[in-house]
Each structure stands twice: as C-alpha cells, then as structure tokens.
Fold this protein.
Amino acid sequence: PPAGAPGARPGAVAAVSAEPAWTPPIVHTLAVFTVTRSVEAVLWPDPFADFRLERWGYHYGEAFTKPPLFDADQPAFRWDHDPWPINVIGHGLLGSEIYFRARSCRFGVPAAVAFAIAGTHLWEYGYEANGVRPSALDLVYTPLAGALLGELRHATWRAAGGIESAPARVLVRALVDPFGEIERGADIFDC
C-alpha cells in the first residue's frame, strides 16, 4: 500500500514527482525581484524612485535600442559603473537564489542555468531597465556566479538531509536556504 494508506509499512515515504515544479521558482523569483527593486528605490531614489512615465519610457527605450552597458575603461567588475560589491556579491547572490530555487524544485543543472539566465534578463530588461540601462557584466556574471554558488548551496542542502540531529539539520538547511525554509515551513511551497 502507498505511504499513509492503511497497512503501509512504517516509515514509508510517498512518491515524489520527478518532474520540475515551475510555480515555486517563478513566484519566488518574482517576489525576490520585487522586494529587491523596492529596496533599490529606497537606497538609490535617483533613478530608481523616479516614477514619471516619460522617464520610464526613456530608460526602457535605451534598454531596447542600445547594447548593454560595458565601459572597458572602468576597473574590473565596475564596467557598468556600479560598485564592485554590488556586482560581485549582490549579483552573485541574486543569481544563486534564482538558480538554487530552480534546482530545489527538481530542475536539472542545464534547466536551472537556463532559468537563471532568463531570470537575469527579466531583472535587467524588466525590473531595472526603467532606471538604468542593462549591464553586460550583470547579464553574464549573474547566472554564471549564480550557478556556481547555487550548485554549492544545492549540494550542501541535500547533504544536510543526512544529518541525524533534527535541530542541526534544520539549522544547516536554514543557513543554506533561509527563504526556502520559510516557504516550506509555512506550507507555501514544498520545494
């Protein structure tokens, strides 16, 4: 008998679908982007809190008619005129969050990389383009760094499943995936 049914063996586990779950990573990514974009508007009101439609039209026009920003005269990881901690740490973590949510919802590596690339393009051309031109650095670095860091997080999260101590297991998983653990703990999503 299946897990949970009368007569099922103790400790039987219900079958888990091997198919990727699309809704959790999409909703999670959109929520992260919305919160991040709102924080940008508070921290850098110029240009991110400028809600005039003519400014948005101008910036979106630039985003879709000019190549992504890349200033080779700037120091490494400042090619888009942003501070390097924003580019290296911030975009690495953002890419990792997108990639890892896809991996934790049963996407394979190639599909999670594609999801991170698509998410990065949505961020650069959708969420941020009403304030600044898309960044060539961000378009490349965010999904690549995200895949590397995200795969490390994924491997650590899975390995934590083997920790016998429930409090230690929960702690490790919460450190590796704080937002995901909140979502799973609140029964918002199961992956």
